[in-house]
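ugh ok fine here u go
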Amino acid sequence: MSHAPSPVAVRHLTVDVESDGQRLDNFLLRELKGVPKSHIYRIIRSGEVRRNKGRVRADERVAAGDALRIPPLRVSERAQEKIDHPAPARDFPVLYEDDFFLAIDKPAGVAVHGGSGVSFGVIEQMRQARPQAPMLELVHRLDRDTSGLLLIAKKKNALKSLQDQFRSRATGKTYLALVKGHWPAQLKQLDQPLHKYVLADGERRVKVTTAADPDGQYALTQVRVLKRLTAAAGLAAAPTIGLSLLEVNIKTGRTHQIRVHLASAGHPIAGDDKYGDFEFNRQWSQCGCKRMFLHAWRLRLTHPITADALELHSELPAALHIWLQTVA
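structure:
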């Protein structure tokens, strides 16, 4: 039996320095997680939200130190569940950190945030582990089954600067991938547009499409062969099919871009349960590797504040590194 969501008591918020100059509606949308957008605008219009004891419009800018009074609000059952049962605190290996952002080593099998059947992810766990941090926000995303470099902003100006770099393709994102078969040396670039769609059960997927598709998104993937490999003992398909360890650079950040582009070229990633080869994956699993071989290895970027050039690295996880030692 489900229970009606509980009303949240009156809240008193003080606008922090990082939120100085932000529109009131945007500030509240960020602060009032789980409250429908329409409800937030309703309480602003009705005058129930007070700033320094006075009425305030949705488009007015808040200032550091402003005192906001928020009336009691009901949140969704899902949001109430998060309040009643917060994510467990968890720290992740830190590869770089300063006052503005940090880079962590995300393990495979962990979502970057809650949603789509996942109660919590990296960001919710880190917020619980660092309650003193005024702000922790994802700069970008990695697939749940992909390991490696993940950036998290600690200040609003750093978040905007870093996201602008990703959006303008000013970063250099390099992954390591192990694929089925011997990748052709001459095939160095994949640029088929990608089209998102939804299966009958609601699962989101991506496929390559044509330039004529109005819903197609431009995507550019560059590939370099690092090593061609033979089989591990027990991987029956590999003696004739072979394996290739690839260095993959993406110039765009489309959903499942690497996985779909490589699979469309006839070389799916080992262990990819969405776009891979079922029989190959079964043999791959029997060889002792229970995850997809895709790792966010290197990231080149400009520091959001100092403008210094940075190059960050995440070494291959032990499970993947050890597995590579078993092949010739």
